[in-house]
Specification:
The chain is α/β, with parallel strands linked by helices. It folds into two domains: 119 residues, Rossmann fold (3-Layer(aba) Sandwich); 92 residues, Winged helix-like DNA-binding domain superfamily/Winged helix DNA-binding domain (Arc Repressor Mutant, subunit A), CATH 1.10.10.10. Helix content is 41%, strand content 21%. The protein contains eight helices and eleven strands. It has a five-stranded parallel sheet, sandwiched between helices. It has a four-stranded antiparallel sheet with strand order 6-7-8-9, with no helix packed on it. The two termini are 27 Å apart.
Length: 218
């Protein structure tokens, strides 16, 4: 089942929401302030973020703006008492996937979560062995298993898909994936590919010693 981050500074409401979602099989990490929630969202893999707006330290709008700036595309639902059209527009313009105004029924929140998670299935997908790869949501799916990828891992995998069965050198990846950006070290690229091989299996991305990497047609 999906792993969710819940940012809500009303402790009672936070506990009510978390308990409801836990009973329905979700894993829920809870936070009372935006700073700790942002740190978690940047260092852990979540299927969805549930964000209140008026919270201590960093508000929900600021948190989402920063996440989208660093190309984190984790789906976000705002759950907030801010009900004006202006705030609704701001939430969506920052990259929110949905906006739920308080007070709300817990069942409605659950329906909206399920709808957003289900939407992963309907976007453009690539098949890599037993996995479905969804670039827009930076996700690999294998049955009930969901693996969140980093932005550069997605770009590397897309490039390897375009060059499927062809050996791609590290220099070629730098030239095409980091075009116009500061060039990474070889060690950085190897770390990204190590993560992809761990997710997909070493047989999916073959290390051709001294030459580069090849995405195999499994």
């Amino acid at each position: 089942m999906a792993t969710l981050l819940l940012l809500e500074d009303d402790l009672i409401l936070q506990e009510i929401i978390a308990e409801y979602l836990l009973e329905r099989g979700y894993t829920v990490d809870t936070y009372l302030d935006g700073e700790k929630a942002l740190e978690a969202a940047m260092t852990r893999q979540y299927d969805m973020l549930l964000l209140d707006v008026n919270v201590p330290e960093i508000d929900g709008f600021e948190m989402l703006a920063y996440l989208r700036e660093i190309k984190n595309s984790t789906p976000v639902i705002f759950i907030t008492s801010l009900s004006s059209i202006k705030n609704l527009q701001k939430g969506f313009s920052l990259g929110a996937n949905d906006y739920l105004k308080k007070p709300f029924e817990l069942a409605e929140l659950c329906i909206r979560i399920e709808h957003q998670l289900q939407s992963l299935i309907h976007e453009k997908e690539y098949v890599i062995g037993d996995f479905q790869f969804y670039p827009q949501n930076q996700t690999l799916l294998k049955g009930e298993q969901r693996i969140a990828l980093k932005h550069k891992e997605v770009q590397i995998l897309l490039y390897l898909l375009r060059k499927q069965s062809v050996i791609v050198s590290l220099d070629e990846l730098i030239e095409n994936v980091w075009a116009g950006e500061k060039s990474p070290t070889y060690a950085t690229i190897r770390t990204y590919i190590k993560n992809l091989r761990k997710a997909l299996g070493a047989e999916a991305i073959e290390n051709i010693k001294g030459s580069g990497y090849r995405l195999n047609n499994l």
